[in-house]
């Protein structure tokens, strides 16, 4: 089974937008296009439901029901309980709130493990726990390959480690880390696990229940949705951590770690992400029932398409002597987020690509620790080329041809 690209691209108004015609979008890791289902729900909410939700009148009841729908359907697709999924303003903010909860939960002398492969959002807030006497241990990448070796993590684990934080995949290295293996190692040592899935979820919604971490975070605006951060906190851990919300919300798991009032419209619109996944599943003849099974079918469709498009791009850059490819050169091992170190500032090169109809970015992408560890000057940054399943083979060909012109 292969993706029907006409159907897929027909779900995204951006591909019919006149101002975007003739431009190939390769900065999806910074934020994806939004699917029609999300846009329709957001428009409907703002025009028909823009009232305080959960009050006893029709418009309000519908508003609350749509917010509940988003949580229930997306949680089911990720293999977790509805109450285990929370919405917040961003993944960065969600992580910060969780870090404050762990600051109260952990005792001086206890330890956490962080990596230098992460986006700063999943390492900076945790590192600040050192101010409260928590030991911070760094699981370091291989400086040549960017790889995180689980054997190195084993050397860091002991009875003092209470939390291990790492990315499902890095937003510059791109390699997909073995979440289940790392989680099992950490749990065996008595530690909880927090996974940053921001750079993975756009390439197929993960089954968090099967993967096994205690916390899983990702960003809806990079996964065809509105600007929200989605956060899974499993029930057992959530009950242990101190409440960060209003005291009277302490008994509601999905409210415990969202101290600010939610963006009602964007939470409701997030159900459009589930609509889109269901539409892809139905169109391609996927399972008739089971939210998690349907999401897994779509996940595999997306990954297969991306791998097929990614390998030609990797082949085009991996042997060039005027750049360095960060991360694996095998498409099966990584997400289609490709960072290139050019030994010159990357942002001007990204600007040049725009002249050839390619939208890309250059910089450090909030992964300063990772690129510095790999010997890349953060002032020069990297050229990042990222795509998703809605990217066409023709757009990848356009990109490769443009790279030949600007490099």
Task: List the topology elements.
Layout (H helix, E strand, L loop, with lengths): L4 H6 L13 E2 L10 H13 L9 H20 L7 E4 L2 H15 L5 E5 L8 H4 L7 E5 L10 H7 L4 E7 L11 H10 L3 E5 L11 H4 L3 E5 L9 E5 L1 H6 L23 H6 L1 H13 L7 H27 L6 E2 L11 E5 L5 H8 L3 E2 L1 E3 L4 H6 L8 E5 L6 H14 L1
Parallel strand pairs: 1-11, 3-4, 3-5, 5-6, 6-7
Antiparallel strand pairs: 2-8, 7-8, 9-10, 10-13, 12-13
Describe the sheet with the most strands: 7 strands, mixed
Residue windows where pLDDT falls under 50 for at least 5 positions:
none
Class computed from helices, strands and strand pairing: alpha/beta
- How many strand elements? 13
Strand content: 5-15%
Helix content: 25-40%
Overall outline: globular
Distance between the termini: 36 Å
**Roughly how many Å is the radius of gyration?**
21 Å
The helix/strand order is HEHHEHEHEHEHEHEEHHHHEEHEEHEH
Cross-sheet strand order for the largest sheet: 2-8-7-6-5-3-4
Q: Would you tell me the overall average pLDDT?
A: 97
With helices defined by DSSP (H or I, 4 residues minimum), what is the helix count?
A: 15
């Amino acid at each position: 089974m292969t993706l029907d690209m006409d159907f897929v691209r027909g779900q995204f108004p951006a591909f019919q937008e006149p101002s975007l015609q003739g431009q190939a979008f390769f900065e999806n890791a910074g934020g994806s296009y939004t699917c029609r289902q999300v846009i329709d729900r957001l428009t409907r909410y703002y025009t028909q439901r823009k009232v305080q939700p959960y009050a006893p009148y029709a418009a309000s009841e519908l508003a609350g029901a749509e917010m509940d729908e988003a949580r229930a359907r997306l949680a089911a697709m990720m293999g977790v309980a509805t109450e285990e999924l929370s919405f917040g303003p961003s993944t960065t903010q969600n992580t910060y709130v969780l870090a404050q909860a762990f600051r109260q939960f952990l005792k001086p002398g206890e330890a956490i493990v962080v990596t230098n492969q992460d986006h700063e959002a999943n390492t900076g807030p945790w590192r600040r726990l050192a101010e409260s006497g928590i030991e911070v241990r760094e699981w370091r990448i291989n400086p040549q390959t960017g790889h995180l070796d689980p054997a190195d993590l084993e050397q860091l684990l002991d009875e003092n480690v209470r939390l291990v934080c790492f990315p499902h995949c890095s937003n510059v290295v791109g390699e997909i880390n073995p979440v289940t293996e790392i989680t099992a190692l950490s749990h065996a040592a008595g530690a909880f696990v927090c996974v940053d899935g921001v750079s993975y979820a756009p390439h197929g919604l993960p089954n968090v229940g099967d993967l096994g971490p205690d916390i899983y975070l990702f960003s809806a605006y990079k996964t065809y949705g509105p600007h929200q951060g989605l956060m899974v906190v499993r029930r057992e851990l959530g009950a242990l951590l101190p409440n960060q919300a209003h005291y009277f919300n302490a008994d509601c798991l999905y409210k415990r770690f969202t101290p600010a009032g939610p963006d009602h419209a964007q939470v409701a619109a997030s159900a459009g992400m589930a609509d889109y996944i269901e539409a892809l599943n139905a169109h391609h003849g996927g399972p008739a029932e089971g939210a998690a099974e349907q999401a897994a079918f779509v996940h595999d469709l997306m990954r297969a398409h991306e791998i097929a498009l990614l390998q030609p791009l990797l082949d085009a850059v991996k042997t060039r002597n005027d750049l360095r490819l960060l991360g694996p050169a095998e498409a099966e091992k990584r997400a289609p987020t490709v960072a290139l170190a050019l030994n010159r500032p990357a942002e001007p090169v990204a600007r040049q690509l725009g002249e050839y109809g390619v939208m890309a970015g250059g910089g450090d992408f909030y992964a300063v620790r990772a690129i510095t560890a790999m010997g890349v000057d953060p002032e020069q940054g990297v050229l990042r080329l990222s795509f998703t399943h809605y990217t066409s083979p023709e757009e990848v060909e356009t990109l490769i041809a443009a790279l030949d012109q600007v490099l």
